[in-house]
## 1
Amino acid sequence: MTKTRSLRWSLPTLLLAATANATDMPLNMTKGVTEISQQVYHLHMTIFWICCAIGAVVFGIMFWSIVRHRKARGVQPAQFHESTKVEILWTAIPVIILIIMAIPATKTLIAMEDTTEADVTVLVTGSQWKWHYKYLEHDVEFYSLLATPKEQIINKFAKGENYLLEVDRPLVIPTGKKVRFLMTSDDVIHSWWVPAFAVKKDANPGFINEAWTRVDEPGTYRGQCAELCGKDHGYMPIVVIAKSPADFESWVNGEAERIAKAKAEEQELLAMNMGMDELMSVGERTYTAYCAACHQPNGEGLPGIFPALKGSSMALNDMPGHINIVLNGKAGTAMQAYAKQLSLKEIAAVITYERNAWGNNTGELVQAADVHAVLQGKGE
Amino acid sequence: MSAVVTDHDHDHEHHDHKPSGIKRWFYTTNHKDIGTMYLVFALIMFFIGGAMAMVIRAELFQPGMQFVEPNFFNQMTTVHGLIMVFGAVMPAFTGLANWMIPMMIGAPDMALPRMNNWSFWILPFAFLILLISLFMPGGGPSFGWTFYAPLSTTYSGDSTALFVFSVHIMGISSIMGAINVIVTIFNLRAPGMTWMKMPLFVWTWLITAFLLIMVMPVLAGAVTMVLTDKYFGTSFFDAAGGGDPVLFQHIFWFFGHPEVYIMILPAFGIVSSIVPTFARKPLFGYASMVYATSSIALLSFLVWAHHMFTTGMPVAGALFFMYCTMLIAVPTGVKVFNWVATMWRGAMTFEVPMMFALAFIVLFTIGGFSGLMLAITPADFQYHDTYFVVAHFHYVLVTGAVFSIIAAAYYWLPKWTGHMYDEKLGQWHFWCSLISVNLLFFPMHFVGLAGMPRRIPDYALQFADFNAFISIGGFLFGASQLIFVWLLVKCARGGEKATAQVWEGAEGLEWEVPSPAPYHTFETPPVIK
């Protein structure tokens, strides 16, 4: 008895849980948090209701006809088959509706494209598969990578609340200020999209696009790359934190300080030698974050697309070539230049790791100074 | 030997010079044989492309990676698109054109029968090349069916060369098919079959054929530039060499937008044939239908950049493309209004072809509404590259183009086979397809509005329930099509004998020849009333 009762109870509960879960997803476009995004939302709703109204009339007449004008009711078919008047009428009415619709759409579009008089400018650069942000008025720039652990993606760990929509370093912008975004790309076309701002703009390699936003509400806003950009297109999210101008100032100064300090430390590091254990552990971490997407965690690459490092002649024999390709990338391929993405220490460590992992037992250590030498030697 | 056998038939009224067995199909220049081959080929491709859709939906059933790797997922979305567009929808329409156009205009065959054979027989090789590329190291093309540069040039695998070659062959096939349609319609109409007496299916195909010969060379140019950028050091789409990646999109969509009308204009012709038959009332506004189709074709050359609003274009450009795109709603609306007016005060019956045609009118119109929404540039910034777009083009392509092809198959099957299809089974096929296709594609509107990008193998948790639902709809829709295959096999093998007219309200030359249509029809031109 208790068993059936609990079953009877649990079924509706399950269904309810499922629907409750489903309501987590908004069923409509977001209104967003900017004036522009609200205008866009209203355009969307206006055209939606216009479509609903036209649909109700057309489908209404059609279904009325289907119900009434069926042979089974014994009706005789009429034989009329043209009317110029009617044709003109149902050409003219849609044209008028469209003109009415085009006016607000034009206004909003013109406002969206006006990127003048910005208070803050951020250069947004897409690359496979991460975003880079550079504040043009400050000495602050950094990469923003997916923070969701691999184990969640391959279903080993439970997925977190912001699964695939979390990054290691979010973009921070001040509230109440006009923020201009300059978009470009280092490799393929990406598209920077934050729904709450109604900003979606392609990042084209070799060209710069513009967009802007003014966010009034402090908060955290999430988006994703919207243009297919290769294998891990689904794994390059965007997180923007809007802070009050004062908080933004202190954050941006803190960042500038942190970056300057890291640079100074790097110079000191040149004189120091790191041991194998330290290089390998830093190297593995760096490899997982930056290299494994293409060359795979096991170093075997993807045949035909991304070359293997395990057993490769470069990783076993050609150390200067190895340092060079990591620093400068390889033109005409997906291999990026990491000189500006990673510190000298990280580059030294990752090369050491690649020369000593997966059976590549060269036993060779690469130090930050070695990397620095290749970097300097390039100019000579 | 078979030649000797057929020589005996020479004195008979219908002298069928055809070799027996497989040679008949290799050597045939008969429009009906070639039409049948196109249709069977399209059906096979529909199932191969459909199988890829099932892989996509299986992976998207739950968040996280379950069955395939992201790289393979991208190959599935890419090849699914290519196969459905170039392998299923376009050949199916060409098959229908081959079968029906000569019979509708009172011609003995297509004007260029040997080219007709050739344009079909290169197709299987094109798709063989495309499918084989999936087994190369690194897999097949994975840059989306739109193959945007530089993803398809610098950053693609070596399967790109095979992809380019196969698209070239598909293009040559389409161009030859289109030339054949144009030459046939211009030269082989029976005396008295004036332009404004031609059935709308003939009209819409004539306009489609012109679109094809205008834009398929543009596609050929685009793939060739991709090939030379990748292998021969040119820089059409590479800024480092003075090129522009956005140029690729302009060229691609200058082909791509007329291409979507290539896939829908013949559908308009089919529905314009079916609705009057089952309403037992002449098509309302025949002339306005012809003008509307022509306007849509002309406008299709002026709207390509509405696929590219986010690429960064001048405001004036965005406004021009927005206005032109909105204008397309006008002639398209005229068509829908004319169909409804045709039904009005008719005496309708609801056999399977009519059911699919009615579903087409409603669901294609829904796809048209979302198309109108997408035209509004500021709103498009939110819709672009999300599942809202996926919902939109599947409504116009699946419940639009594919439903019309299915409707056409039911409508003309008795004429092709000489047997009535199983009406009850057909109704099952219709209702299963109708319900499942909406379970599949309708929720995609919501998922897209909520912010899920397209072409991703994995997604945020908020989209999980809807995606599970969509996947179930997808599996059901796939399974429903098996009913169709069963029905086709049954109908080809036997069934109630069909009369010449088949449908009570059917009018036109194709209904004046016996069912099944003899191997050769209209060897002497018919008299047009």
## 2
Amino acid sequence: MASVTLRGITKRYKDTEVLHDVSLDIADREFMILVGPSGCGKSTLLRMVAGLEEISEGEIVIDGKIVNHLPPRDREIAMVFQDYALYPHMSVEENMSFGLRLRKLPKDEIARRVGEAANILQIKPLLKRTPRQISGGQRQRVAIGRAIVRKPKVFLFDEPLSNLDAKLREEMRIEIAKLHQRLHTTIVYVTHDQVEAMTLGSRIAVVNVGRIQQAGTPEEVFCRPANLFVAGFIGSPTMNFIDGTLLDEGDGPRFKNEVMSVRIPLPLDAQAPRAPEGGKPRSVVLGIRPDDIYAKPPEPADGPDLIPAVIEVVELLGHRKNLHLKAGETKLLATVDAAFAGKPGEKVSVWFNASRVHLFDKDAQERISLEGRRFPR
Amino acid sequence: MTGGAGAILGSILQVGHFVGLILAAVAVLEAYLYVHFFRYGRKWFLPAVILGAGAACFASLMLAPLQLDAGRAASAAVCAAMLEAAIALFFKYVIRGRWALPYMMLAPGIVGLTLLIIYPLLFEVYLSFHDLKLTTILHWSRTGELPFVGFKHFVKVFMSSPLSEVGFWQLVLRTLWWTFVNVLFHVSGGFALALLLHHKLKLKGLYRTLLIVPWAMPQVVAVLAMRGEFHSQYGFINVAVERLVSWMPLLASLGLQPVQWLTQHPFLTCCIINIWLGIPFMMVVILGGLQSISQHYYDAAAIDGASAFQQFRMITLPLIKPVLAPAVTLGTVWTFNNINVIYLVTGQAGGTEDADILVSALYKAAFTYYRYSYSAAFAIVIFLILFAFSMAWLKWTRGTESVYERD
Amino acid sequence: MENANTARALASSSARGQRAENGRAGEEYQKALKAHHLKRKAWLVLIHAALIAWVLVSVYPLLRIFSVSLRPGDRIVSTDLSLIPAGASFLSYWKVLYETNFLFWLWNSLIITCATATIGVSLAALAGYAFSRFKFPGHKTGLTLLLGNEMIPAAMLLLPLFLMIMKLGLVNTYLGMIIAYSVTSLPFSIWILKGYYDTIPKSLEEAALVDGTTRFGAFLRIILPLSTPALAIAFLFNFTQAWNEYLVARVVLTDARMYTWTLGLFELQGQYLTQWGMFAAASILVTLPVLGVFLYSSKWLISGLTLGGVKG
């Protein structure tokens, strides 16, 4: 059981820098997820923790010890690979005991640990088979078993579920969650699937273009995304982004563009907005998740806060419906109750759940915190 | 067969001894590299390796039966120590332990290739500028000294004949013709057979197996067997011709008659034998290429209305090119360098020279006529010719590739 | 390719056949189907005929040798073309085994070849791994030089090698032969093995590293056992190259007791037709095992050759 600390990690291949000054603290017994699109550097980061990639700059600390120059075998880690990397010429049992045999553990101890892991993962009947004779899901279990028997300080998972089909992936996800509850060890888990990230992680680090964009609990990352990238990456379907300006016309801050004018509510404890500092309205991006958009048939009495839009496409998901809307030139996706009766071509009135509106600075792409902010008039 | 068991035991011991020596040499080499890759940072590194190299050099020179006096051995040891100092500094400040594993794994192979390919090539260059022949070889093997003669042998290569009758330029032309004809028939024959085999057929596996028999047979047996079939009296070809003629005398009046293949048409005989030998390799390579082309392309082309010939030209040819091009390159070089067929067919004492190409003339010049230095110069000239052709070929194929990509 | 057009015709006529009720179009369809089958059959017959013809050309010399080897002593030389000659006997086999040095020759070939192939494959197994997994300075140059080595004519290398062997006093010894042979197949073997190692996922070694081995340990424990097919191919390649070699042996070996079988065979064939039967018997004895091994392993051997050499 151990904590892992990354300090100022940088990775260079010849002229290209793929990781820039990454720092991250992973607490003891934490289930840390590194999530990001492919090629963002998350796997490289994990492989550096494992000792499979050289570190160009910075240091990695496992359990209080700097491990930069330790080979993988001396780091007391175990790793589960994307393609499982089971040794094809060994039986399942030999695969699982390989690391223990290398460490010259006594035979009965090896047998005990392999049996225990096989029990946990329910692969006892497979022990004598070779990896070729078992299914993808079973291989996955064996790969995890090979990691468990070692009793490492840290488990590293490199996209372990991406080679499984959807149903099996869901099952294994639950298995891994249970495993963490049972073993209670530090886990660093790399994935590109934000559903896995949200469901498994006790904390999530969202990685893009070689930087950690945001690290926090799943709730934090989902409810208060730190920038446009995180907002767009986490959550499915993707958050809607609308360009506009932020200004204050006397009744509090408002988001405005050619089709809408949305009041931005302030938390009760926030100071009332004051006179503008710069004077110019600020260019911002408004983010709103499809679930937080409401729609109703238009009525003549609709107030100015309702946005007129046209339905372009309707997708039935089962209990919900995706409405692809167009408001002026802005495209919006709203997920509404399946009972909603609108058809393509019809007009609707749309409004946002005001407390779930996110605002981002257009230039810096960073979140604009609404707490205690003063807005330009 | 008496003493067979003893001879067998003796030979095993001899070879085992040799393999043991090689293992020991590899162990010494790896130990040397290990120190240089992993211990370069230690304080003792530089003094230890430099002293060690000097001492090892001195000891081995004194122990070896060379009858060197201690003074000369000592100066050699100093040279060795200085060389080692340079190497050690290089390892300490430039290499710094990087790429230890790949270089240590490559080292035995590199040493082997250096000793048995690069050193002989350099020795060949040395030979070509000196005079080694039957009259000087005894002197050379005793003292290691040879008279320097400059470009004399290179001039002789172009001005005189390497064999008794055939001139250099004639050989060059014949070699080019030989290479061209053989490769052409190898590729076209191999292609034809591969296309035939690429259908869904019964007995396909059997056909394939039997078709590669000429390639699978030991070449010496294959060539000598084929040579027998060209025998003027008992060979299949002449026997068949004779029977045909006696059966249908009309054919004789058309000019069909037994031919003295080996003495009158040795070059043609060699070509036929070599083509027979080389077709299976090309067939197998091309068949592999054909099987890797997805049927979808043909389905799509058929729907687009392409005829069989159009499909061959627009799909098969371009898609097989990446497999075919390197095979043709290799095949060309192999054919150019092929001595086996020609030597086995015409190499007996008093054999004809009318089938010889450059490399077989080189072999005969060196080992039938014992003109060592002359052969060395001849070999270098041949190598340069081949090298020039290869460069031109590489440039040309790259050129066509870029045209291909632009399309 | 041929079939596609007919198939198209069939498809259109069958569509019509379904539309038409009176059966006339159905008849047309049956006709087209019949014509298609006939055409296909004719093609198949032609293809089989062509293949059989060439198979005969390929195999005939071997069959002839076999037939000669069975001829009785007084009719070795004849214009007889039948496969099993009248009065067939194994006399020639008996004579070649007991009246010549044939068994010595086989043994010489065997020991030289085994030693050569073992050395060659060991060196290639190590070097191929370095080329497959590491990007060290000289990586590309090395690979190019290995391929370029194919360009060096054998006769060119043979002269200096022979002089070196002579100066070391190794003429007429196994060692001289092993030295001369040992690296000739090395470049190609390195290519074959590199090509095979390239197909083994790197994550296997990484898993072994995490499990607790060194890099070289991962090579020994994981990569080598997984590469047995490729190692076998490389061994076979080295083995056949040395086993079938003639030109080097002719230069290095002059003592008839030290001959390899290729030299002995050439000697037997010689000019004297009286030995023709023994030559044939010896050829058959040597060829059958080689042929068997080659044909048995041809699938791997060929894929290895194309993998390492041609696709390179």
